[in-house]
Amino acid sequence: MKDIKENYLIEITSTYKVEDNKETLNIKTTGTFKEKEGKKYIIYKEYSDTNPNKFKTCILKIENNNKKITLIKNGNVQTKLVLEKGKRIHSPYPTEFGAIMMGIFTDFIEFSSFENEAQLNLKYSIDVNSEFVSTNNIKIHAVKKDN
Question: What is the pTM of this model?
């Protein structure tokens, strides 16, 4: 996976809600979409707001008939989130300041792909140390660039 051909335009819309506060973040980047051994991958770089030369490589692995998503971010600290429809998964989540125990309950996963396009929609809630934190919606749309 090290040889990433950035031949897809990727748009990510992430909305999270904490109590009455709702924030939406839109990211447009380039990356790739591929299928390997029955699993699908969306791979892209997430750049730092403060240093445009600094980035994390993000890998979304879609498996189990589109019912399980693994998000891996490689950077200063590697993070891994597992989202599985209808399940609550607890795992340590490393940060630059130390690990926290995070719980994720996935309400909704929808994935579709066509010859030159992929779409992923997720809805999940997060708790930290069993205290509710937020509800989250993520939409990822990957479209192959014109040659």
Answer: 0.86
